[in-house]
Amino acid sequence: MTVFAIRGYSRPIATLGDLDILSESPYSSAMIISASREEMLKKEINGAVDYINRVLLPRGKKVAVYQWTGDCRPPAEAIQMVDDLGIGNINGGDPRFDPLNPSYTGVSALARQAGGFVQPYTSNANENIYTNGWKGPFYGFEFVIDTFRQTEDPTLVKSPPRRTSPINVYYHFYGVEKIKSLEAVRKVYDFALTQEIIPVFASEYCAIVKGFYKGKIFTLPAGGWRIRDYGACRTVRFDDCRLHPDLAKSRGVIGYSNYAGSLYVHLDESNDAELYLSSHPAGRVYLRDSEFVLSALKMGSEEISFTGRVFRKSKCHFANLRPEGNYEVEIKKKLSGKTVSTGVIQADRSGILEIVTPKKGEYYFQAKRQG
Fold first, then answer.
1. Which residue, among 257, 274, 258, has the nearest Cα to 266 in the 3D structure?
2. Which helix (H) or strand (E) holds 253?
3. Are 149 and 156 a contacting pair, CB within 8 Å?
4. pLDDT (tens digit, 9 = 90+) per residue, 178-194?
5. Nearest to residue 79, comparing CAs of 51, 53, 115?
6. Looking at the 3D structure of the chain, how many domains does it have?
7. Final residue belonging to a domain, choices 178, 205, 232
8. Both 19 and 117 in a single domain?
9. Final residue belonging to a domain, choices 205, 235, 267
10. Which position among 119, 139, 158, 206 has the lowest Cβ density within 10 Å, counted as fewest Cβ atoms?
């Protein structure tokens, strides 16, 4: 599967009223595009998307993300135009958290809001920032690894570990035209691939950010919370929390995990959940963690089934299975239904069952207890 993103028709640096629009060039002799605000937005958004869909993309593929150009501060009507096309939008922010920017103040918000519309920011700066506008040092992009580290387990400020900004490997094609810049990109990829992360498409990240801003949380009379309209943002975090979800009382909760003193609660795809916490650990089967996005998840002491898309060999863990119990696992290709592998795996002494996926692809998984 390939997801396509575009960056406008002429790649302007700003869209300010009916003023002339400067191209994104550092030179004073840059071309000036004279157009009204309405003409510019229509050409840059609808025109660009239509042209790429009709002329450039292979059959069956469509643009999925619109990346803002230049100052990355589109007006509300521009964001609405992209939303109306049914695609994601992203860019801007350029967060950094490293020895040269040793503070959370350099980490941008997840998004910018304009007129009720959401513009997700990129979660890390690109190589143009780290190389001072492609003037050097050309190995500068490797310093984005500092931001990856500091936005999860900061050492430059006094703060507990928690990921405040996702890992995002963001660079332009010219970012690999020099030996040093190519080496920097490789270092960044090598680091990212060693981390416990869930790879997602940029279009999916846009949906997650929108879910964060559109979601609603209500307190319930019995002491819990109702969480609605969260969309693709399916994790809720409680800091400094030693409690556990009450899975028997909660609704729409598929699991949880604990990390560095925080409780991470996993929600299902219903877009409407009720969550209650308890001082007692869960007594039901639940999803502890996963390196890929799961959907259509069904869980019980006898059987677990779900679908998932992976970009590499990955794993997930379920808790509260029978300790040292044997489970027959069958993995099929999601579209064709062809069986990829079958086998028996054993839960560990604490009842944790680890399921390992094949390489890149979309699959259906089913685990049944034996005996």
1. 257
2. strand 253-259
3. no
4. 999 999 999 999 999 99
5. 115
6. 3
7. 205
8. yes
9. 205
10. 158
